[in-house]
Amino acid sequence: MEEQADSGTPMPGWPWLTGGLLALVVGVLWTAQGLDLTHDSVLSDVFAMALIGPAVAAAGLAALVLGVRIRAHAKRTAHKGTST
What we know:
The protein is mainly alpha-helical. It has one domain. It has two helices and no strands. The longest helix has 36 residues, at 47-82. The protein is rod-shaped, with a radius of gyration of 18 Å. It starts with 13 loop residues before the first helix and ends with a helix.
């Protein structure tokens, strides 16, 4: 069941939050693998992962911030429309 604003429309922003969290976790994991912090991994000590991981994590963090801002804007807009 989707969270809904007072107007009955679905709350935007959740895809950005979900994708951002996933990208952040994957980016941190890839960074750890590239820096050989996970010893029993196929990608351990692969230098490319140490470069790609932080970029993916930063993109995930940006998507999280965007998702939070979208949801906050939608809530403000919904509350303005219902107040008299």
